[in-house]
Amino acid sequence: MAPATDSAKPLVELRDIRKAFGGVHAVDGVSINLYAGEVVALLGHNGAGKSTLMKMLAGAYPVDSGETVVAGQTVDIRAPSDAQDLGIETIYQTLALADNLDAVANLFLGREKLTPWRTLDDHFMEGQARKVFQRLNRNFTNIRVPVRALSGGQRQVVAISRALYFNARILIMDEPTAALGPEEAAMVGRLIKQLKTDGVGIFLVTHDMPDVFALSDRLAVMKNGRLVGTYRTADVTEDEVLGMIIAGKRPERKAQAEHA
Amino acid sequence: MSGVGPTSAAEHADVPGDRPGGHVWQRAGLDLRLLLMSALLIIMGVVFHALSGGVFLSPENLYNLAQQTAVVGIVSTVMVLVIVARHIDLSVGSVMGFVGVLIAYLMYTSGWSWQAASLAGLAVALLVSMYQGALTALLGVPSFVVTLGGLMSFRGAAFLVADGKTQPVNDEFFQRLGGGYDGGIGVTATWTLTALVIVGLFVRLAHERTSRRRHDMPLEPLWRDLVVTALPCAVLIAFAWTMNSYQISSKPEPQGIPIPVLIWAVVAGVLSFLVHRTRFGRYIFAMGGNPDAAALVGIPVRRVTLLLFALLAILVTLAAIVSIARLNAGTNSLGSGMELYVIAAAVIGGTALSGGSGSILGSALGALIMQSLDSGMLLLDVAIGKRMVIIGQVLIVAVVFDVLYRRRFGER
Fold this sequence. Notes:
The complex is a heterodimer.
Chain A (H helix, E strand, L loop, with lengths): L11 E10 L2 E11 L4 E5 L6 H9 L6 E6 L2 E3 L4 H6 L2 E4 L11 H5 L14 H15 L15 H14 L4 E5 L7 H16 L3 E5 L3 H7 L2 E6 L2 E7 L5 H10 L13
Parallel strand pairs in A: 3-8, 3-9, 6-7, 7-8
Antiparallel strand pairs in A: 1-2, 1-4, 4-5, 9-10
Chain B lengths: L31 H20 L7 H26 L7 H17 L5 H24 L5 H19 L5 E2 L3 H5 L10 H28 L7 H22 L15 H19 L1 H11 L1 H6 L4 H27 L1 E2 L7 H11 L11 H20 L4 H25 L4
Antiparallel strand pairs in B: 1-2
Helix pairs in contact in B: 1-14, 2-9, 2-10, 2-12, 2-13, 2-14, 3-4, 3-5, 3-12, 4-5, 4-12, 7-8, 9-10, 10-12, 13-14
């Protein structure tokens, strides 16, 4: 968790980030920052480049050019494990679960706890998993069956638990409520508010306008790989946001916001 | 559900009543598929026994059957992992032939010791696997294509090593590795080993239960755990007893467990350990279950794939050693067509060609089913053409069963 004194400095600064696939500029000179205890909603059409931008921060894609600064340090994130070491956790829209493994194995996937003999410490992992799953859903007990057998909400719990258990200080959530029922979506909303209070910085990639206005402090809109603008959520209306997403038109006489 | 992944072993049984229909036996690692295959094996044995006039289930035939299955069985164990990780290796037969001839050539023509020759063979196998593995893991060329090329090339290489000449293997100790006349470990060693394994299984059970209690995990009823542990022990005792009942008339003592079968058992044990207890095994299953997720959570996919190919090389070398020791020679046709038997054993044993699911024990049963069918029909004088037709169709039946089974139980 970032100490309160750091709140003057951004937790994450992305500066002039670029990424091209073949000849297509998926992300074209985007700069954006995120403070501790803040939720920044990232908006835009499919293909606007928001997921690509987040995947670069998560280490899934290398950046072509640009600078990434985390807690004041310039960092080079080349692999998901680099991002994890910096406290960056990602909840993908696809959830990134191995369907043939159970919930415990998925929670620790890539970061298994080992015994002194370098074997998997299954009992430790199962015990820890039970605790973290309980926090999110008290009825979730069938944690030893392959996750393909679980409900959408339970699968989401597994994916979110990864971020919780490994103490994310920067959290990327890609459409966290898209596949959920109303009750589960409300749970995710409460969780986001809880994490905010704990000082976690959250990038929220979403299409859902009620979520944007209920949960985010600032919002950033992307179109065709470029950043249209970054505003305090309280300063703009839904129509203005839609105008940015659809037409790439900045609202008149509204100041952009580099911080909340 | 069990047998489908590293987390499905008996020790992971969850709270009773947790899962709809999660009956105490279903959580025991005694899954239906393995039980059905065991039943099939027993039925085949009884039918062949009756048709062959009491020959098939004789200790002599079972001894030979077991040691004949070992070579395919050894390679099948690792083929399971290769297929689970969504790869395939069609070149195992050719590489085994190449390495086998090379080891025999170094011993016979170059006069090397068997140890030096075997190490050289292993080195060459590792080079071959790193070449094929690098093309697959680093460049992303489909392993099907890479190893299809290897299937041709390394068969050719097997010919080139000794210019097509058969290389006899004369070292007496080395020959024992392949089983045969002096290839059993004897009565005392067989019983000692059996006793040790049984003690080991119960010690593991006790350790498991203590550990679960210490971590406040739910425990299965003791009687259930005892039955689940006693069952393999009973099979083991029956096997040891059978192997100790086979005595070659010119020898003072019965044969005991054949060395190639012992090697196979150790290999299967080690690979089961890798699957259930190590990161390596878990990553292989994760890569097969969802390759994108595996990469996104930071699994070093390339390194794990290369390690998998290296493991394959080690076991192919071991199979080559057992094979030339059994035949007392390395020939350029060694292992021809073996890739099909190996893959078939894995598939009959419940390994899904779509990846993510398979078990080592299943591959052992699959290999035994294939070999029993082949030997049984040979015993009944079924012509080679008919045998091939039947075995091919059995493979298809196995895959159809697999598809229906997965559909029935909600797996992909």
